[in-house]
Specification:
The chain has 123 residues and is mostly helical. Helices cover 74% and strands 0% of the residues. Helix 1 packs across helix 2. It is globular and about 40 Å long.
Amino acid sequence: MKTDIKNKEDIKILVDAFYQKIRTDATIGYLFTEVAAVNWEKHLPTMYDFWDNILFYTGNFDGNPMMKHRALNQKSSLTKSHFKHWTKLWKNTVDDLFEGQKASEIKIRANNISKAMISKVIQ
């Protein structure tokens, strides 16, 4: 039986599983591995803090994701379908691992973030 997301350790499990999928994804993987050339040792802890803050309001994240995605869009045009695919992968990963109020909440938050990125980054 799946449990709900309870703490940062669960966030780490989720983020790690999600980015394992991203790295080999045929649709958007190249944006991370080739275009952004993500340094995973640096990026993953940032994402742990980001999602921990999003879900549990920890205050541990002090970045500007919009600016990062605008810069990425300058390197390789991002599309609405890229963000929709990202959202689908995120939701599927959450559903693979967790269920409950926080799991539902993190999917809603991801969807809202995706919509904001579409609105602010790709125009």
